[in-house]
Amino acid sequence: MVDPKVNLPTNDITTMHEAIPFLPVPVAITCLLFNIFIPGSGTIISGFSALCMGQPRINMKEGRKLITLVVNLLVGISQFFTITFLFVGWFWSIAWGGLLIIHSMQYREALQQRRQEAVATAAIEALTKDSILHRRDVKTLVKSHKKSKK
Questions:
Q1: pLDDT tens readout for residues 20-30
Q2: What distance in Å separates the CA atoms of residue 106 and residue 122, rounded to the nearest whole number?
Q3: What is the per-residue pLDDT for 127?
Q4: What is each CA distance from 85 to 4, 37, 88, 127, in whole angstroms?
Q5: Which residue from 49, 69, 111, 115 has the least number of CB within 10 angstroms?
Q6: Which sequence spans correspond to the domains of the chain?
Q7: For residues 140 and 150, what is the distance between their CA atoms, to the nearest angstrom?
């Protein structure tokens, strides 16, 4: 079975941007919609979703999911409370939701590519093994056919 986790390189400078998790695309779209209607709510949901169905992007050995949750929680709260400053929180929230979708689509494409490579490898191995087994079967059939003629 293919490991569902794919390590995509992140070129984010800050831990805050690295905290945007890889989520299934429908979940990322749902988070964007929540961010549009209630700024920060989709960001908080994405942090909790990373615990059970997503993959954190933070490059740390331990506590990746916890750090992702905490950062998304803090960013979501910040987005909500900065709505009053010329809707800064609302625009920030929508941009965050857009990044969620972009990262989720990149992750989905990487998963699909990895699955295709695994299927191709398995097919090549199966064909190679099958042809070797087939040759043996043909040899035994030829030998048995020759014996039956004699």
A1: 999 999 999 99
A2: 24
A3: 72
A4: 41, 17, 6, 64
A5: 115
A6: 15-119
A7: 16
